[in-house]
Write a structure and sequence with these properties.
The protein is of the alpha/beta class. It is built from 14 helices and twelve strands.
Protein backbone atom coordinates (compact mmCIF):
# COMPACT_ATOMS: atom_id res chain seq x y z
CA UNK A 1 0.00 0.00 0.00
CA UNK A 2 1.26 3.47 -0.88
CA UNK A 3 2.87 5.49 1.90
CA UNK A 4 3.89 9.18 1.74
CA UNK A 5 7.46 9.08 0.52
CA UNK A 6 8.88 12.55 1.24
CA UNK A 7 10.02 12.48 4.87
CA UNK A 8 11.41 15.99 5.19
CA UNK A 9 8.28 18.05 5.68
CA UNK A 10 10.31 20.64 7.64
CA UNK A 11 12.62 21.22 4.66
CA UNK A 12 9.65 21.58 2.34
CA UNK A 13 7.95 23.90 4.81
CA UNK A 14 11.11 26.05 4.93
CA UNK A 15 11.11 26.44 1.14
CA UNK A 16 7.41 27.20 1.09
CA UNK A 17 6.98 29.48 4.10
CA UNK A 18 10.38 31.02 4.85
CA UNK A 19 9.96 33.97 2.40
CA UNK A 20 6.62 34.75 4.06
CA UNK A 21 8.04 34.45 7.56
CA UNK A 22 11.04 36.60 6.65
CA UNK A 23 8.75 39.27 5.23
CA UNK A 24 6.71 39.35 8.44
CA UNK A 25 9.90 39.34 10.56
CA UNK A 26 11.36 42.25 8.58
CA UNK A 27 8.03 44.07 8.77
CA UNK A 28 8.15 43.77 12.56
CA UNK A 29 11.73 45.05 12.60
CA UNK A 30 10.81 48.04 10.43
CA UNK A 31 7.87 49.04 12.64
CA UNK A 32 9.85 48.65 15.86
CA UNK A 33 12.80 50.50 14.32
CA UNK A 34 10.66 53.48 13.36
CA UNK A 35 9.03 53.58 16.80
CA UNK A 36 12.44 53.36 18.47
CA UNK A 37 13.77 56.20 16.28
CA UNK A 38 10.73 58.30 17.22
CA UNK A 39 11.32 57.65 20.94
CA UNK A 40 15.03 58.46 20.70
CA UNK A 41 14.39 61.72 18.84
CA UNK A 42 11.47 63.09 20.86
CA UNK A 43 11.15 61.30 24.21
CA UNK A 44 14.62 60.18 25.31
CA UNK A 45 17.07 62.32 27.20
CA UNK A 46 19.60 61.89 24.43
CA UNK A 47 18.31 64.73 22.26
CA UNK A 48 16.52 67.97 23.03
CA UNK A 49 13.32 69.03 21.26
CA UNK A 50 13.83 72.64 20.13
CA UNK A 51 10.66 73.10 18.10
CA UNK A 52 7.16 71.77 18.04
CA UNK A 53 6.07 68.57 16.40
CA UNK A 54 2.73 66.86 15.91
CA UNK A 55 2.55 63.14 16.83
CA UNK A 56 -0.48 62.77 14.52
CA UNK A 57 1.73 63.60 11.54
CA UNK A 58 4.07 60.72 12.37
CA UNK A 59 1.10 58.40 12.75
CA UNK A 60 0.25 59.25 9.13
CA UNK A 61 3.83 58.98 7.88
CA UNK A 62 4.93 55.75 9.57
CA UNK A 63 2.55 53.35 7.71
CA UNK A 64 3.70 54.80 4.39
CA UNK A 65 7.35 54.58 5.45
CA UNK A 66 6.85 50.93 6.49
CA UNK A 67 5.42 49.94 3.11
CA UNK A 68 8.15 51.84 1.26
CA UNK A 69 10.84 50.16 3.35
CA UNK A 70 9.46 46.67 2.72
CA UNK A 71 9.14 47.27 -1.03
CA UNK A 72 12.72 48.57 -1.09
CA UNK A 73 13.89 45.36 0.58
CA UNK A 74 12.17 43.41 -2.21
CA UNK A 75 14.00 45.48 -4.83
CA UNK A 76 17.34 44.68 -3.19
CA UNK A 77 16.59 40.92 -3.41
CA UNK A 78 16.32 40.13 0.29
CA UNK A 79 13.71 37.41 -0.34
CA UNK A 80 15.32 35.40 -3.10
CA UNK A 81 14.98 31.63 -2.98
CA UNK A 82 17.89 29.74 -1.36
CA UNK A 83 19.39 32.97 -0.02
CA UNK A 84 20.92 33.02 3.44
CA UNK A 85 18.75 34.46 6.18
CA UNK A 86 21.64 36.61 7.40
CA UNK A 87 25.21 37.21 6.30
CA UNK A 88 27.38 40.27 5.82
CA UNK A 89 26.43 40.16 2.15
CA UNK A 90 22.75 40.15 3.13
CA UNK A 91 23.46 43.00 5.58
CA UNK A 92 24.88 45.02 2.68
CA UNK A 93 21.66 44.52 0.71
CA UNK A 94 19.71 45.49 3.81
CA UNK A 95 21.60 48.77 4.07
CA UNK A 96 21.10 49.51 0.37
CA UNK A 97 17.40 48.79 0.76
CA UNK A 98 17.20 51.13 3.75
CA UNK A 99 18.94 53.95 1.86
CA UNK A 100 16.59 53.42 -1.08
CA UNK A 101 13.58 53.53 1.27
CA UNK A 102 14.69 56.81 2.84
CA UNK A 103 15.28 58.37 -0.59
CA UNK A 104 11.84 57.30 -1.83
CA UNK A 105 10.08 58.45 1.36
CA UNK A 106 11.74 61.87 1.36
CA UNK A 107 10.68 62.26 -2.28
CA UNK A 108 7.09 61.37 -1.35
CA UNK A 109 7.12 64.02 1.42
CA UNK A 110 8.42 66.60 -1.05
CA UNK A 111 5.53 66.06 -3.48
CA UNK A 112 2.76 65.23 -0.96
CA UNK A 113 2.91 68.25 1.35
CA UNK A 114 -0.37 67.33 3.09
CA UNK A 115 1.33 64.52 5.02
CA UNK A 116 3.15 66.93 7.34
CA UNK A 117 2.96 70.59 8.32
CA UNK A 118 5.97 70.73 10.62
CA UNK A 119 8.10 68.61 8.33
CA UNK A 120 10.14 65.49 9.10
CA UNK A 121 12.68 66.05 11.86
CA UNK A 122 16.11 65.90 10.23
CA UNK A 123 17.62 63.61 12.86
CA UNK A 124 14.82 61.08 12.21
CA UNK A 125 16.51 60.10 8.95
CA UNK A 126 19.89 58.86 10.27
CA UNK A 127 18.39 57.53 13.50
CA UNK A 128 15.76 55.47 11.68
CA UNK A 129 18.39 54.16 9.28
CA UNK A 130 20.37 52.80 12.24
CA UNK A 131 17.40 51.50 14.26
CA UNK A 132 15.57 49.84 11.36
CA UNK A 133 18.67 48.27 9.82
CA UNK A 134 19.86 47.19 13.26
CA UNK A 135 16.60 45.58 14.41
CA UNK A 136 15.92 43.87 11.08
CA UNK A 137 19.49 42.57 11.02
CA UNK A 138 19.22 41.39 14.64
CA UNK A 139 15.98 39.53 13.94
CA UNK A 140 17.49 37.78 10.92
CA UNK A 141 20.68 36.92 12.81
CA UNK A 142 18.72 35.32 15.66
CA UNK A 143 16.55 33.38 13.22
CA UNK A 144 19.59 32.22 11.26
CA UNK A 145 21.22 30.84 14.41
CA UNK A 146 18.06 29.09 15.61
CA UNK A 147 16.62 27.77 12.34
CA UNK A 148 18.75 24.80 11.36
CA UNK A 149 16.81 22.59 8.95
CA UNK A 150 18.67 20.17 6.72
CA UNK A 151 17.61 17.39 4.40
CA UNK A 152 19.74 14.35 3.63
CA UNK A 153 21.23 14.12 0.14
CA UNK A 154 23.46 11.81 -1.94
CA UNK A 155 26.07 12.65 -4.53
CA UNK A 156 26.07 10.26 -7.47
CA UNK A 157 29.64 10.11 -8.69
CA UNK A 158 32.83 9.48 -6.70
CA UNK A 159 35.23 11.26 -9.06
CA UNK A 160 36.67 14.80 -9.00
CA UNK A 161 33.35 16.29 -10.14
CA UNK A 162 31.48 14.55 -7.32
CA UNK A 163 33.98 15.78 -4.71
CA UNK A 164 33.73 19.37 -5.96
CA UNK A 165 29.94 19.24 -5.88
CA UNK A 166 29.98 17.92 -2.31
CA UNK A 167 32.43 20.62 -1.20
CA UNK A 168 30.29 23.36 -2.75
CA UNK A 169 27.15 22.11 -1.00
CA UNK A 170 29.00 21.76 2.31
CA UNK A 171 30.22 25.36 2.00
CA UNK A 172 26.62 26.57 1.71
CA UNK A 173 24.57 25.28 4.67
CA UNK A 174 21.90 27.88 3.87
CA UNK A 175 20.76 25.59 1.05
CA UNK A 176 19.60 23.11 3.68
CA UNK A 177 21.33 19.97 2.30
CA UNK A 178 23.46 17.48 4.23
CA UNK A 179 25.57 15.16 2.08
CA UNK A 180 25.34 11.74 3.79
CA UNK A 181 26.97 9.56 1.15
CA UNK A 182 28.36 9.05 -2.34
CA UNK A 183 27.01 6.60 -4.93
CA UNK A 184 29.39 5.11 -7.47
CA UNK A 185 29.31 3.04 -10.64
CA UNK A 186 32.59 1.33 -9.69
CA UNK A 187 32.37 -1.20 -6.80
CA UNK A 188 36.10 -0.61 -6.13
CA UNK A 189 35.19 2.84 -4.74
CA UNK A 190 33.04 1.39 -1.93
CA UNK A 191 34.25 2.37 1.54
CA UNK A 192 36.34 5.33 0.35
CA UNK A 193 35.92 8.63 2.15
CA UNK A 194 35.52 11.84 0.16
CA UNK A 195 35.18 15.27 1.82
CA UNK A 196 34.51 13.48 5.12
CA UNK A 197 31.70 11.36 3.64
CA UNK A 198 31.79 7.66 2.77
CA UNK A 199 31.02 6.04 -0.59
CA UNK A 200 28.03 4.02 0.62
CA UNK A 201 26.86 2.06 -2.41
CA UNK A 202 26.60 1.53 -6.13
CA UNK A 203 23.86 2.63 -8.51
CA UNK A 204 22.22 -0.79 -8.11
CA UNK A 205 21.94 -0.11 -4.37
CA UNK A 206 20.24 3.25 -4.89
CA UNK A 207 16.57 2.21 -4.26
CA UNK A 208 17.43 0.61 -0.93
CA UNK A 209 19.60 3.55 0.16
CA UNK A 210 16.88 6.06 -0.73
CA UNK A 211 14.40 4.21 1.49
CA UNK A 212 16.76 3.33 4.32
CA UNK A 213 18.51 6.69 4.66
CA UNK A 214 15.41 8.85 4.01
CA UNK A 215 17.09 10.76 1.19
CA UNK A 216 15.40 13.83 -0.25
CA UNK A 217 17.79 14.77 -3.06
CA UNK A 218 20.34 13.13 -5.34
CA UNK A 219 23.01 15.32 -6.96
CA UNK A 220 24.22 13.60 -10.14
CA UNK A 221 27.85 14.63 -10.68
CA UNK A 222 28.98 11.87 -13.06
CA UNK A 223 28.46 13.13 -16.57
CA UNK A 224 29.53 9.93 -18.40
CA UNK A 225 26.44 8.02 -17.31
CA UNK A 226 24.67 5.97 -19.93
CA UNK A 227 21.32 7.53 -20.70
CA UNK A 228 19.36 4.44 -19.69
CA UNK A 229 21.16 4.34 -16.31
CA UNK A 230 20.41 8.00 -15.67
CA UNK A 231 16.81 7.34 -16.68
CA UNK A 232 16.59 4.59 -14.06
CA UNK A 233 17.98 6.97 -11.43
CA UNK A 234 15.33 9.56 -12.29
CA UNK A 235 12.61 6.91 -12.26
CA UNK A 236 13.54 5.51 -8.83
CA UNK A 237 13.82 9.00 -7.35
CA UNK A 238 10.56 10.23 -8.83
CA UNK A 239 8.70 7.22 -7.40
CA UNK A 240 9.83 8.36 -3.95
CA UNK A 241 9.38 12.08 -4.60
CA UNK A 242 13.14 12.59 -4.26
CA UNK A 243 14.62 15.60 -6.09
CA UNK A 244 17.27 14.94 -8.75
CA UNK A 245 19.76 17.66 -9.68
CA UNK A 246 22.29 17.07 -12.46
CA UNK A 247 25.63 18.71 -13.18
CA UNK A 248 25.10 18.99 -16.95
CA UNK A 249 27.10 18.75 -20.09
CA UNK A 250 26.80 21.92 -22.14
CA UNK A 251 24.53 20.13 -24.62
CA UNK A 252 22.09 19.32 -21.81
CA UNK A 253 21.56 23.02 -21.24
CA UNK A 254 19.36 23.01 -24.34
CA UNK A 255 16.60 21.04 -22.56
CA UNK A 256 13.46 23.11 -22.08
CA UNK A 257 11.71 21.39 -19.15
CA UNK A 258 14.50 21.86 -16.62
CA UNK A 259 15.31 24.23 -13.82
CA UNK A 260 18.88 25.55 -13.79
CA UNK A 261 20.47 26.25 -10.41
CA UNK A 262 24.01 27.18 -9.38
CA UNK A 263 26.28 26.69 -6.36
CA UNK A 264 29.76 28.25 -6.42
CA UNK A 265 29.61 28.50 -10.21
CA UNK A 266 28.62 24.83 -10.68
CA UNK A 267 25.36 24.57 -12.66
CA UNK A 268 22.71 22.04 -11.69
CA UNK A 269 19.82 20.82 -13.78
CA UNK A 270 16.66 19.66 -12.07
CA UNK A 271 13.08 19.13 -13.09
CA UNK A 272 11.37 22.50 -13.22
CA UNK A 273 9.75 23.37 -9.90
CA UNK A 274 6.44 25.08 -9.34
CA UNK A 275 6.12 28.80 -8.63
CA UNK A 276 3.59 27.98 -5.88
CA UNK A 277 5.93 29.01 -3.10
CA UNK A 278 5.91 31.83 -0.59
CA UNK A 279 3.35 34.56 -1.24
CA UNK A 280 2.07 32.80 -4.36
CA UNK A 281 0.97 29.89 -2.14
CA UNK A 282 -0.70 32.33 0.26
CA UNK A 283 -2.50 34.07 -2.62
CA UNK A 284 -3.79 30.77 -4.00
CA UNK A 285 -4.89 29.60 -0.55
CA UNK A 286 -6.81 32.85 0.10
CA UNK A 287 -8.42 32.58 -3.34
CA UNK A 288 -9.38 28.94 -2.66
CA UNK A 289 -10.82 29.63 0.79
CA UNK A 290 -12.86 32.64 -0.36
CA UNK A 291 -14.07 30.85 -3.50
CA UNK A 292 -15.02 27.66 -1.67
CA UNK A 293 -16.89 29.55 1.06
CA UNK A 294 -18.86 31.58 -1.49
CA UNK A 295 -19.68 28.54 -3.64
CA UNK A 296 -20.80 26.50 -0.61
CA UNK A 297 -23.22 29.27 0.35
CA UNK A 298 -24.58 29.53 -3.20
CA UNK A 299 -24.82 25.75 -3.56
CA UNK A 300 -26.48 25.13 -0.18
CA UNK A 301 -30.08 24.93 -1.53
CA UNK A 302 -29.05 22.53 -4.32
CA UNK A 303 -27.07 20.41 -1.85
CA UNK A 304 -30.11 20.12 0.39
CA UNK A 305 -32.25 18.91 -2.53
CA UNK A 306 -29.58 16.42 -3.65
CA UNK A 307 -29.24 15.07 -0.09
CA UNK A 308 -33.00 14.53 0.09
CA UNK A 309 -33.03 12.72 -3.28
CA UNK A 310 -30.17 10.42 -2.24
CA UNK A 311 -31.88 9.45 1.04
CA UNK A 312 -35.15 8.88 -0.79
CA UNK A 313 -33.52 6.80 -3.54
CA UNK A 314 -31.51 4.24 -1.56
CA UNK A 315 -30.51 3.36 2.01
CA UNK A 316 -27.20 4.59 3.32
CA UNK A 317 -25.47 7.85 4.12
CA UNK A 318 -25.77 10.97 2.00
CA UNK A 319 -22.04 11.55 1.79
CA UNK A 320 -19.23 9.24 0.78
CA UNK A 321 -15.68 9.69 2.13
CA UNK A 322 -12.74 8.08 0.39
CA UNK A 323 -9.01 8.24 1.07
CA UNK A 324 -7.00 10.04 -1.58
CA UNK A 325 -3.36 11.12 -2.02
CA UNK A 326 -2.68 14.86 -2.05
CA UNK A 327 0.25 17.28 -1.81
CA UNK A 328 3.60 15.73 -0.84
CA UNK A 329 2.01 12.28 -0.83
CA UNK A 330 -0.11 13.06 2.24
CA UNK A 331 -3.44 11.30 2.51
CA UNK A 332 -6.76 12.97 3.13
CA UNK A 333 -10.42 11.96 2.97
CA UNK A 334 -12.27 13.33 -0.03
CA UNK A 335 -16.00 14.01 0.49
CA UNK A 336 -18.61 13.44 -2.22
CA UNK A 337 -22.30 12.74 -2.53
CA UNK A 338 -22.85 8.98 -2.52
CA UNK A 339 -23.66 7.71 -6.01
CA UNK A 340 -23.43 3.95 -5.45
CA UNK A 341 -25.05 1.49 -3.12
CA UNK A 342 -23.75 1.25 0.42
CA UNK A 343 -20.51 -0.79 0.74
CA UNK A 344 -20.12 -0.92 -3.06
CA UNK A 345 -16.55 -2.26 -2.87
CA UNK A 346 -17.04 -4.56 0.10
CA UNK A 347 -16.71 -7.72 -1.97
CA UNK A 348 -14.36 -6.47 -4.68
CA UNK A 349 -11.84 -4.16 -3.06
CA UNK A 350 -10.60 -1.09 -4.97
CA UNK A 351 -11.66 -1.38 -8.63
CA UNK A 352 -12.25 1.06 -11.46
CA UNK A 353 -15.80 2.21 -12.06
CA UNK A 354 -17.32 1.74 -15.50
CA UNK A 355 -19.75 4.10 -17.25
CA UNK A 356 -22.55 1.53 -16.89
CA UNK A 357 -21.48 0.35 -13.44
CA UNK A 358 -24.37 -1.66 -11.91
CA UNK A 359 -23.39 -0.42 -8.45
CA UNK A 360 -24.66 3.07 -9.29
CA UNK A 361 -27.98 4.13 -7.85
CA UNK A 362 -30.63 5.69 -10.06
CA UNK A 363 -30.03 9.18 -8.66
CA UNK A 364 -26.31 8.51 -8.38
CA UNK A 365 -25.97 7.88 -12.09
CA UNK A 366 -27.48 11.27 -12.92
CA UNK A 367 -25.32 12.98 -10.30
CA UNK A 368 -22.19 11.43 -11.78
CA UNK A 369 -23.16 12.40 -15.30
CA UNK A 370 -23.59 16.03 -14.22
CA UNK A 371 -20.57 15.88 -11.85
CA UNK A 372 -22.83 17.21 -9.11
CA UNK A 373 -21.51 14.57 -6.73
CA UNK A 374 -18.28 16.61 -6.63
CA UNK A 375 -19.90 19.63 -4.89
CA UNK A 376 -19.02 18.53 -1.30
CA UNK A 377 -15.34 18.67 -2.25
CA UNK A 378 -15.70 22.41 -1.72
CA UNK A 379 -15.47 21.52 1.97
CA UNK A 380 -12.11 19.83 1.31
CA UNK A 381 -10.97 23.07 -0.33
CA UNK A 382 -12.23 25.19 2.56
CA UNK A 383 -10.31 23.17 5.19
CA UNK A 384 -7.14 23.12 3.07
CA UNK A 385 -6.96 19.51 1.86
CA UNK A 386 -7.58 20.50 -1.76
CA UNK A 387 -7.57 23.48 -4.09
CA UNK A 388 -10.17 24.69 -6.55
CA UNK A 389 -7.73 24.02 -9.39
CA UNK A 390 -5.08 21.31 -9.49
CA UNK A 391 -4.44 17.69 -10.52
CA UNK A 392 -7.34 15.40 -9.65
CA UNK A 393 -6.55 13.26 -6.56
CA UNK A 394 -6.24 9.49 -6.84
CA UNK A 395 -6.65 6.64 -4.39
CA UNK A 396 -3.52 5.24 -2.66
CA UNK A 397 -4.08 1.80 -4.20
CA UNK A 398 -3.84 3.19 -7.74
CA UNK A 399 -1.10 5.72 -6.92
CA UNK A 400 1.08 2.78 -5.92
CA UNK A 401 0.50 1.21 -9.36
CA UNK A 402 0.92 4.37 -11.42
CA UNK A 403 4.12 5.50 -9.74
CA UNK A 404 5.72 2.16 -10.64
CA UNK A 405 4.60 2.37 -14.27
CA UNK A 406 4.63 6.04 -15.26
CA UNK A 407 7.78 8.20 -15.06
CA UNK A 408 7.29 11.47 -13.14
CA UNK A 409 3.83 10.44 -11.93
CA UNK A 410 4.62 11.49 -8.36
CA UNK A 411 5.60 14.97 -9.56
CA UNK A 412 1.88 15.79 -9.76
CA UNK A 413 1.80 15.62 -5.94
CA UNK A 414 4.02 18.66 -5.51
CA UNK A 415 0.89 20.80 -5.07
CA UNK A 416 -2.60 20.30 -3.69
CA UNK A 417 -5.12 18.31 -5.67
CA UNK A 418 -8.00 20.19 -7.28
CA UNK A 419 -11.71 19.85 -7.97
CA UNK A 420 -11.00 20.76 -11.58
CA UNK A 421 -7.77 21.06 -13.50
CA UNK A 422 -5.93 21.98 -16.69
CA UNK A 423 -6.16 18.37 -17.86
CA UNK A 424 -9.94 18.23 -17.40
CA UNK A 425 -10.67 21.44 -19.34
CA UNK A 426 -8.43 20.15 -22.16
CA UNK A 427 -10.52 17.05 -22.72
CA UNK A 428 -8.64 14.63 -20.47
CA UNK A 429 -11.77 13.43 -18.71
CA UNK A 430 -14.67 11.11 -19.30
CA UNK A 431 -13.77 8.30 -21.70
CA UNK A 432 -11.03 10.34 -23.38
CA UNK A 433 -7.29 10.12 -22.82
CA UNK A 434 -5.00 8.07 -20.58
CA UNK A 435 -3.19 8.63 -17.30
CA UNK A 436 0.06 9.30 -19.18
CA UNK A 437 -1.60 11.94 -21.37
CA UNK A 438 -3.31 13.53 -18.40
CA UNK A 439 -0.02 13.70 -16.54
CA UNK A 440 1.44 15.95 -19.25
CA UNK A 441 -1.31 18.50 -18.65
CA UNK A 442 -0.95 18.25 -14.87
CA UNK A 443 2.80 18.87 -15.05
CA UNK A 444 2.31 21.79 -17.43
CA UNK A 445 -0.07 23.36 -14.91
CA UNK A 446 2.33 22.78 -12.00
CA UNK A 447 5.34 24.22 -13.83
CA UNK A 448 3.47 27.18 -15.35
CA UNK A 449 1.08 28.10 -12.56
CA UNK A 450 -0.27 31.61 -12.30
CA UNK A 451 -3.38 33.15 -10.78
CA UNK A 452 -4.58 33.98 -14.30
CA UNK A 453 -4.24 30.32 -15.29
CA UNK A 454 -6.41 29.31 -12.31
CA UNK A 455 -9.07 31.82 -13.32
CA UNK A 456 -8.92 30.58 -16.92
CA UNK A 457 -9.40 26.95 -15.79
CA UNK A 458 -12.38 27.91 -13.62
CA UNK A 459 -14.02 29.86 -16.45
CA UNK A 460 -13.48 26.97 -18.87
CA UNK A 461 -14.97 24.62 -16.26
CA UNK A 462 -18.10 26.77 -16.10
CA UNK A 463 -18.36 26.64 -19.90
CA UNK A 464 -17.89 22.87 -19.85
CA UNK A 465 -20.53 22.40 -17.10
CA UNK A 466 -23.01 24.54 -19.04
CA UNK A 467 -22.45 22.40 -22.13
CA UNK A 468 -22.82 19.25 -20.01
CA UNK A 469 -26.14 20.44 -18.58
CA UNK A 470 -27.45 21.19 -22.08
CA UNK A 471 -26.43 17.67 -23.19
CA UNK A 472 -28.24 16.08 -20.26
CA UNK A 473 -31.43 17.94 -21.20
CA UNK A 474 -31.30 16.89 -24.85
CA UNK A 475 -29.60 13.46 -24.96
CA UNK A 476 -30.91 10.11 -23.70
CA UNK A 477 -29.42 8.94 -20.35
CA UNK A 478 -27.35 6.16 -21.97
CA UNK A 479 -25.78 8.37 -24.64
CA UNK A 480 -21.95 7.88 -24.89
CA UNK A 481 -21.36 11.62 -24.49
CA UNK A 482 -22.76 11.42 -20.94
CA UNK A 483 -20.50 8.61 -19.84
CA UNK A 484 -18.17 9.41 -17.02
CA UNK A 485 -15.11 7.57 -15.81
CA UNK A 486 -12.44 10.05 -14.90
CA UNK A 487 -9.33 7.97 -14.39
CA UNK A 488 -8.09 5.04 -16.37
CA UNK A 489 -5.15 2.63 -16.38
CA UNK A 490 -1.89 3.49 -18.09
CA UNK A 491 -2.90 2.12 -21.48
CA UNK A 492 -6.36 3.65 -21.34
CA UNK A 493 -7.99 0.21 -21.48
CA UNK A 494 -10.53 -0.18 -18.71
CA UNK A 495 -12.18 3.07 -17.75
CA UNK A 496 -12.51 4.93 -14.64
CA UNK A 497 -12.15 5.09 -10.92
CA UNK A 498 -14.17 4.02 -7.93
CA UNK A 499 -16.88 5.93 -6.14
Amino acid sequence: MFQPSRPFSKKRARELYLPIFLTLLDLTGIVLGLLLAYWIRFHSALMSVTKGYDPAEYKRMFPIATVVWLVSFCFTHLYRRNEKIWSWRVFGRLLRGSLLAVAIFVTILFFVRSLTVHGLARWMVPISLVTVAGLVSLGRRLLDRSLVITARALVLGAGPSGKEVARSIQRHPELGWEIVGFITTDPADLGRELTGVEVTGTVDDLPGILDREEIEAVFVAQTDFRHEMLGNVFFECQKRMVDVKVVPDLTEMLFSEVDVGEVDGIPFLGLRDTSLRGWNAVLKRLFDAAGAALLLILAAPAMAVIAWLIKRDSPGSVFYRQERVGADGKRFFLTKFRTMGADAEKGTGPIFATPDDPRQTRIGRRLRQAHLDEIPQLWNVLVGDMSLVGPRPERPFFVEQFREQIPRYMARHRIKSGITGWAQVNGQTGHEGTISERLKYDLYYIENWSMLLDIKVLLLTVVWMTRRTRQMMTLPPDHPALRRSEDRPVDGGSPGRGE
